[in-house]
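dumping this here before i forget
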Amino acid sequence: MDPVNELRIAAVPHGFRSSFRDWAAEKTDHPREVIEAALAHVVQNKVEAAYARSDLFERRRLLMDDWAEHLAGKGG
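structure:
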């Protein structure tokens, strides 16, 4: 079952992800690394990736809280 078709939403996941990325970059002070981690993007630079051992879970959670508030029209 495709949730997009089930809800009859005229949207694609990539567009939703792009909206999130634009909002996070333009309207928040969350670090780029946290935003990219929330999008499950991997670090392309091999040296940087070798030292990036944290999943930034707590910081990603705060970012997602802000995103939820934004979607609900409560801020951010």
